[in-house]
Amino acid sequence: MSRVTVTRTIEAHVSDVWRLLTDVTVRTGRGQVLTTGEFGPGTAWREVRSQPDGSALIEEFVVVAAEPPHRLVLSSPGTEVDYRVTWTLCPARRRGQCGTVVTVTQEAIASTVFGRIVTFLLGGLAARTVERALRRDLVELAAATHTDTAA
Length: 151
Fold this sequence. Notes:
alpha+beta, Alpha-D-Glucose-1,6-Bisphosphate, Chain A, domain 4, 3 helices, 7 strands, Polyketide cyclase/dehydrase/lipid transport protein, START-like_dom_sf, Polyketide_cyclase/dehydratase
């Protein structure tokens, strides 16, 4: 199993960050919501994400746990490797303003022997790629909070 963790402080109240993080219609963008009902365990969607080379990648996510407004755990099945993404939101005061420390951790869990071999051989390269993607997710989330609060 490999694990990558990235943290960023976002200048927005924890409830605003949670609302944007869990708004599946915003998350999917060019994707598709697969379930109906309120957001919570079992909610599933597909989203189209950009890869570093500019190509599109379709990923499917399912909510494993949701503890508003502090913790969100998602699973994403992959080929030979399954992924678990945990978002943790902690209120913080920064420069006299309400802020949120957001930590996102992605764990890669090999589901086959071949997956374990690939994880072992490509672990470092994959970790750097995942770290860049997680940092980009945090930048986009921060930008969305500024856009949302300005509206």
